[in-house]
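User: My instructor asked us to take a sequence, write out its structure as tokens, and then describe one feature of it. I'm not sure where to start. Here is the sequence I was given:
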Amino acid sequence: MKQILKRSGLVVGLVRAARAGVLDLQQLYWWAIRRRQIRAYFASHSVRKLQIGTSRNVLPGWLNTDFILERPEVVFLDATRRFPFPDNAFDYITSEHMIEHIDYAGGEAMLRECFRVLKPGGKLRVSTPDLRVLTALCGPEKTAAQTTYVNFVAERSLPGVKDCRAVFVVNNAFRAWGHQFLYDPATLRHLLDRCRFENIQDSRPGSSHDEHLRGLEAHGKTINNEAINQFETFTLEAQVPVHKPAAPAV
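Assistant: Let's start with the prediction itself. The structure tokens for your sequence are:
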């Protein structure tokens, strides 16, 4: 009977509807209180910094936001819609392992909003899994680093997979964790350029020439392996022009 209920479209649909209803109510509450949270942050910070996709990585001195809140101090934000901030509100924005969880159109909408709410000369930092790393795993020969990565992901997320692990790891990266669109650096650079950012530079998780953008990423701690994080993640920093044009239409 238990197995029949698990396969029942009606039961599965009802469970999903109930969960969605709970999330809707939570988001209504988060939406209702966020104006007060935002006002309090702006009133207490002269250098204003926005984190998109906080999860559990609450950064001191930042306005930490997310779509599903895991901490009471995090503010509700749907990054694919117009941000609840005025133009030129922030000096810095960071986002780690978040943009891959929304589709390409949503990613473009997010970056255009980042451009709008950043001050002239403001900086954006984005870290995300590197599609080049994943596709290279299926080559005929593997480096020691690639073998280590494949085994790490398989043992962590695909414990039943013993053969052809690289293919399973690549498929898993596209299908698991709510991933919607995976970038390589060239594609993200192109999108940042379309959104009128300039001075687009390569970085590494945790490293930056700007002290405000240094030591922010926590994905290595989340997976308990910083070497794997450094292997799979790329980071780009970009800047709003000092003579900022009008934000492009979404």
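For the description part of your assignment, you could build on this observation: Strands lie at 49-52, 63-66, 75-76, 90-96, 118-129, 198-203, 233-239. Try explaining in your own words what that tells you about the chain.
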